[in-house]
Amino acid sequence: MAWLESPAQTSTALVRAATPDDGAAIRNVLLNSDLFGISDVECVDAMFVETWERPQPDGYRWLVAERAGAVIGFACYGPESLTQDTWDLFWICVASSARRQGAGRALLQAALHDALMHHARLMVIYTSSTPPYAPARQLYAAFGFKHVATVPDYYRDGDDLNIYWKRLR
Ligand SMILES: CC(C)(COP(=O)(O)OP(=O)(O)OC[C@H]1O[C@@H](n2cnc3c(N)ncnc32)[C@H](O)[C@@H]1OP(=O)(O)O)[C@@H](O)C(=O)NCCC(=O)NCCS
∠18-20-22 over CA atoms, to 5°? Predict the structure, then answer.
C-alpha cells in the first residue's frame, strides 16, 4: 500500500508511506518520545496491526520520517467513520533527539497532502492541554489549525482535551 506516489524529501527528513516492517521502528519512536508510555505503545501497535491484517479503504494511514536511513518519526491519520470526508490526525510523534529539525512539519505536510488528494474536507486533531503537548499545539497552529473546542478535564482532572480543526476544501 503506497499512499504517497513518491517519497517526499525535505532538507532534513524523508517522508514515506509506512510498510508492515515499520512496526518496531514506530514503537521505538514512541519509547524515545520522553512523553508516551507502554499503554500508548500498545494502543499504536493495535492500530498498526489492524491496518495490515484488516485493510480497509477508510482505515488508518501511516507515514514515517527517516533521517540517514533511520525512522525518527511517524504520523497516523485517516478518514473518520460516519462523517463526510472529515479526517483525523490520530498520532504524530518525532523521537526527542530528532526534534526541531523539520520532521514534524514534513510529516504533517505529507498527511495533509495525502488527505487532500483523497478529497478530505476537514482535518481534526485531539490533543492535551498540558505543557508537554505545547510543541504539538504550536505545530498545529503553524499549519492554520484552529483551536475550536476544549473539553475540561477530559484526560484527567487538570488535563483538558483541545480540539484543533482545519478546513481543507
Ligand atoms: C509535535 C512534534 C511532532 C513536532 O516535531 P518536530 O520535528 O520537533 O517539529 P518541527 O521541527 O518540524 O517544527 C515545526 C513547527 O512546530 C512548532 N514547534 C515544534 N516544536 C516546538 C517547540 N518545542 N516549541 C514551540 N514550537 C514548536 C513550531 O511552529 C515549528 O516551526 P518553526 O521551527 O518554524 O518554529 C514533536 O514535538 C513531538 O513528537 N512531540 C511529542 C509527541 C506529541 O505531542 N504528539 C502530538 C500528540 S499525539
Answer: 60
Domains of the chain as residue ranges with CATH: 8-121 (3.40.630.30)
For 106-138, the pLDDT digits (tens) are 999 999 999 999 999 999 999 999 999 999 999
- What's the predicted TM-score (pTM) here? 0.95
Question: Are 143 and 112 in contact, with CB atoms under 8 Å apart?
Answer: yes
Residues at CB less than 6 angstroms from ligand 1: 33, 35, 91-94, 99-105, 127, 133, 135-136, 138-139, 142
Cα torsion at 65, 95, 93, 43 (round to 10°)?
110
